[in-house]
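Sat 14:20. Reprocessing the chain from the morning session after the first attempt stalled halfway. Input below, unchanged.
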Amino acid sequence: MQMKPKSNCPLHSFEPCKQLDCAWFTQIRGTNPNTGADVDEWACAIAWMPVLLVENSQQQRHTGAAVESFRNEMVKANESSQQVLLAVAQGGATPQTLLTAK
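Finished this time. C-alpha cells:
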C-alpha cells in the first residue's frame, strides 16, 4: 500500500496547497537517489527536502572516495620519492640513474 499525503501547506495553516501560485512549488528533474527512477515532477520545496538530502549524502560519499583515492596515490608517490632520496643519501646512485632504471 502506498500512502499519499494530503496537499495541505504547513506554511499557510494547513490550507490546500496553492501549487503554481506559491514560490516554493518547484520542479525537479533527474534521477531518484533511492530508486534510480527518472523524476520530472512539481512539488513543494519542503516536500523535496528528504530526497535532496539523500542525493547530497550520496554525492558526499563519492567525493570522499575520490579524495581517498587521490590520497593513496600521493602516499605512493611520496614513498617512491623517499626511496630515491635514501638511495642518493647513502651514496649508491644518482637520482637520474634511479629514475631511469624504473
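Residues 45-89 form the longest helix (45 residues).
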